[in-house]
Design a protein that fits this description.
With 245 residues, this protein is an alpha/beta fold. It is built from eight helices and nine strands. A seven-stranded mixed β-sheet has the order 3-2-1-4-5-9-6, sandwiched between helices. The chain has a two-stranded antiparallel sheet with strand order 7-8.
């Protein structure tokens, strides 16, 4: 949230924006945007989430509107929003390309998309034998060399066909954004670790948090940007590109 709101504040430059929070859930980001006096819209596929959001934030402001809709078919006109937030959403989608094309349609030409995604190659997945084992099982399954019962494949792997909980490689995401009309204009790396061995932490919670913050601070500086390939998640700022770019 801190990174996403920082990107949004830099873009708004103290202006009041028309913003859509896609997959808003119970409205954690809506609250922060209302406190900043933005004109906020929220959408989600879960009616119960929208009810909780409405009940919670109608006390703060009436300057937000909610809709029950799917990201692949949003009920808004072309170029409707100055900014769109899409946090913790794309890893659950059956078709990311459809979703990105729809976000491209509704954001203004000079607007931004702030979108997050989880990393397949984060430190905790690369250093813990548990995740390496699960990854190997998944690869054997994809190659037809091992059968895995329905429901057994968990979010440890990059492409969960049962729950659609995906993880991504950095270059893969950059190419996916570009192929759907976006260029990446900023990227924040979020959290590293915890370092564990068969899911058991190797260090205390305090030390794991300290290690994570240290790497996060370094990775978000130019000289340490190579560390981003090991972050747990990324928060991207996307803008539309024109054909001559």
């Amino acid at each position: 949230m801190r990174n996403a709101l920082h990107l949004l504040e830099n873009f708004s430059n103290n202006k009041h924006l028309k913003i859509l929070d896609v997959g808003c859930g119970t409205g954690h980001y809506i609250e922060q945007m209302l406190l900043r006096k933005h004109n906020v819209f929220g959408n989600d596929v879960a009616f119960g989430m929208l009810i909780k959001s409405k009940d919670k934030y109608s006390r703060i402001s009436q300057n937000h509107k909610l809709s029950l809709s799917n990201i692949e078919k949003l009920p808004f006109q072309n170029s409707s929003f100055d900014a769109v937030l899409c946090i913790g959403v794309i890893e659950y989608l059956p078709d990311i390309h459809k979703a990105l094309r729809e976000l491209n349609r509704i954001v203004k030409e000079d607007g931004i998309i702030i979108i997050s995604a989880p990393n397949l190659l984060s430190i905790k997945f690369l250093t813990d034998p548990y995740y390496l084992k699960r990854g190997a099982e998944y690869l054997l399954h994809k190659m037809g060399l091992r059968k895995i019962n329905s429901g057994q494949i968990t979010s440890d792997v990059s492409m969960n066909q049962d729950f659609k909980n995906r993880r991504f490689r950095f270059r893969e995401l950059i190419d996916t954004f570009y192929n759907n009309g976006f260029k990446v204009t900023a990227c924040k790396n979020v959290s590293f670790g915890p370092v564990s061995f068969f899911l058991k932490p190797l260090f205390s919670l305090k030390n794991n948090i300290g290690f994570s913050r240290w790497l996060e601070n370094i990775s978000n500086k130019k000289f340490g940007s190579f560390l981003r390939i090991f972050a747990n998640r990324w928060v991207f700022e996307l803008r539309k590109y024109r054909s001559h770019e």
